[in-house]
Specification:
The protein is of the alpha/beta class. It is 57% helix and 15% strand. It is built from 23 helices and 19 strands. An 8-stranded mixed beta barrel has the order 10-11-13-14-15-16-17-18, surrounded by 6 helices. A 5-stranded mixed beta sheet has the order 6-7-5-8-9, sandwiched between helices. The longest helix has 28 residues, at 29-56. The structure holds ligand C2E and magnesium ion (2 copies).
């Protein structure tokens, strides 16, 4: 009897079935769909083998029974095709909608099976060669072809919604299936369709469904891939969940004792799995992630965990626990992952270890994320602009410099102010690219306009401490000025003292290197927030910029006046020039002129201007060389 190949196929599927049902895995809807595919394949192969046996013994068995088995086999082939369609679109719809679609396909499948029973089927048997033929068989070939077409088309039509690996594996499955059909159509004695189907399913299993791919082999718990599928499915089905990410990275930074660290992780995982109140996952960034649909359960778990492991020896003080709920409009696991990373990185070492992410925090993160994307596209599409605000030289009574201030031109033509995007750029590191672009545009301006001949001696360019702390800063700045052939003395770099500073040494080293070749430096926003005189003492500044808050207070507050006088005196002693920022009217201007302040910047003279307007502005005033104040 010609059933060896089908038995091999059946063995394959049975082995997969044993693996699949025995493995540690989540109760995912998509997984269940695949489980049904395996069951249908087993049934299909059983009927395949059964039909060969029935035909072989057709003389001893009643004809109606032989024909019934042959027809049921044809129906199973159709069912398998329909099941493959349902499986292919499992990523696309929520569980509820997918169930409705499955129901609709079940009705179609039933109608097709009735048609198979309605049309005649004939059997052929001669020695090794046994097969069925006739209108019912032809009909089944047509249905199978339609099913394969639908699968193929939906693997393209739903685009990104069907995961790439699912598309690839399903297409391979179909190709193998088609090959099987081709071979059998060519030579009826080669009954390979069932075997080809089982091979196709093996491909899907190993590419997509292998439960081993969901297990962290070191800790024998679910891994990041399982977490991503699980959370995405919960979001897609609109099901409530609480996710707690316990990160142990801080601890590992401090005590790089891997073995000890691994033991700790294993102990925690074992503890959480024993409690059976949440699904436990281990992610590659040394986090244990717990997901539960029950908030009190998760609360209990966290309280108990902190009680159990908060002794100084076990060191749970190092953990950063982030609690997120899905009711905050989070659209995918990737977004949750970014959110968790964002709040983890934002937290300082001394800050609390338990962060309950609230709706407001998520909204804050989402608006930052939007700005981050805006900065990225603005850089790509060259929508980063530099405005120049003239700086008045009180001694020469003309404009001798300007401050370069970055703007982002929105796609609707409006401008985004730096107060909105510079802090985000600093947090994301995009400030490096942004700062580079500002310097390039400033150098281009100096090299290709008449600014210098109109009396502009240098431009002040803001340098974030994030940039100032880069060890490659000197090379980057030199490359730019060399490219535009701009002398370093034409650039004054403004640094603001900031809580973001990690390493003053690197900044001082960069400043010294840059000063050697001719750049000068200004300490920006002096007198605001966290002013620290030590910056002036330790860092080689040339200019001190009095912050607007200070210049405003100067007029209303006696103490501020004496502070400015003292700063004036101190600056002279330290050989520093002063720029007073934020001068908005004549009274403010004259008050500062009395104190012999070298430079004045503010709306009284001009707001920051686009480059061509700046040139017109300076030309109008500097050419007469004496501004009437
Ligand atoms: P900043 O460096 O202290 O710049 C001075 C800010 O004061 C500018 O705001 C300017 O428009 C504003 N200003 C000047 N005169 C007056 C005045 O008389 N009245 C008032 N009310 N405001 C005045 P802007 O352009 O919005 O920039 C804000 C901050 O953004 C800057 O403060 C700077 O810290 C940052 N920034 C701007 N461009 C860059 C850049 O290219 N790189 C970096 N890292 N930061 C930048
Ligand atoms: Mg500035
Ligand atoms: Mg300033």
């Amino acid at each position: 009897m010609n059933i060896a190949v089908q038995i091999c196929g059946l063995m394959n599927i049975l082995v997969l079935l044993v693996f699949y049902s025995g493995a540690k895995q989540l109760d995912l809807y998509k997984r269940r769909v695949f489980f049904y595919i395996l069951l249908i394949s087993v049934a299909n192969l059983c009927f395949d083998i059964g039909s060969v046996i029935a035909i072989h013994y057709k003389d001893t068995l009643p004809t109606w029974l032989v024909l019934l088995i042959c027809r049921l086999y044809l129906c199973m082939l159709d069912l398998e095709g329909i099941a493959a369609i349902v499986y292919t679109i499992a990523d696309v719809f929520s569980k509820q909608i997918h169930r409705i679609i499955t129901g609709a396909f079940a009705v179609v499948c039933m109608a097709e099976c009735i048609a198979v029973f309605f049309y005649p089927v004939h059997i052929f048997s001669s020695g090794r060669e046994v097969y069925t033929y006739g209108p019912a068989v032809n009909l089944m070939y047509v249905f199978s072809a339609i099913n394969i077409c639908i699968i193929w088309i939906s693997s393209f039509a739903f685009g990104e919604k069907v995961r790439l690996r699912r598309k690839q594996s399903v297409r391979l499955w179909m190709v193998i299936w088609l090959l099987g059909m081709g071979v059998q159509a060519f030579d009826h004695s080669l009954l390979v369709i069932g075997f080809a189907t089982s091979l196709g399913i093996m491909v899907v299993f190993f590419m997509l469904e292998n439960p081993e791919g969901f297990i962290d082999s070191q800790y024998d718990c679910l891994n990041n891939v399982a977490l991503s599928e699980y959370v995405d499915e919960l979001i897609q089905n609109d099901e409530f969940f609480v996710l707690c990410s316990i990160n142990l990275d801080n601890a590992s930074h401090r005590q790089r004792n891997n073995e000890k660290e691994e033991k700790r992780i294993a102990k925690y995982i074992e503890y959480f799995e024993r409690m059976k109140k949440a699904n436990v996952f281990k992610t590659p960034d040394n986090s244990i992630v717990l997901v539960s649909d029950n908030t009190p359960d998760m609360k209990f778990l966290m309280d108990d965990f902190l009680d159990e492991f908060s002794s100084p020896v076990s060191g749970s003080q190092d953990h950063c626990i982030i609690w997120v709920e899905n009711s905050y409009n989070l659209s995918s696991f990737v977004e949750i992952k970014k959110l968790v990373r964002f709040f983890r990185n934002k937290r300082r070492v001394d800050e609390k270890q338990f962060i309950h992410v609230t709706r407001e925090m998520v909204e804050d993160y989402q608006s930052q994320d939007k700005i981050k994307k805006e900065i990225k596209s603005a850089l790509k599409e060259d929508r980063v602009e530099v405005f120049l605000q003239p700086i008045y030289n009180t001694e020469e009574k003309r404009y001798t410099s300007a401050e370069a201030l970055v703007r982002i031109r929105n796609t609707d033509g409006s401008l985004m102010p730096p107060g909105l995007f510079v802090p985000v750029a600093e947090a994301t590191g995009q400030i490096n690219a942004l700062g580079r672009r500002v310097l390039e545009k400033t150098c281009d301006f100096l090299a290709n306009t008449e600014a210098i001949s109109l009396g502009i001696e240098y431009i002040e360019v803001n340098l974030s401490v994030v940039q100032a702390e880069k060890t490659s800063l000197f090379d980057e700045i030199m490359n730019t000025v060399r490219y535009y052939k701009v002398s370093p003395k034409r650039i004054n770099l403004e640094i603001t003292e900031s809580a973001l500073i990690h390493s003053k040494e690197v900044i001082i080293n960069n400043m010294n290197q840059l000063k050697k070749v001719g750049f000068t430096f200004a300490l920006d926003d002096f007198g605001k927030g966290e002013s620290n005189l030590m910056y002036l003492v330790e860092m080689p500044f040339d200019i001190l910029k009095l912050d607007m808050d200070m210049t405003k207070a100067f007029h209303v507050n006696r103490k501020a006046k004496s502070a400015v006088k003292t700063v004036r005196y101190m600056a002279k002693e330290m050989n520093l020039k002063i720029v007073a920022e934020g001068i908005e009217n004549r009274d403010e201007l004259f008050a500062f002129l009395k104190y012999d302040i070298e430079y004045i910047q503010g709306y009284y003279f001009s707001k920051p201007l686009p480059m061509p307007e700046f040139i017109d502005f300076v030309r109008n005033f500097n050419e007469v060389h004496n501004i009437s104040l």
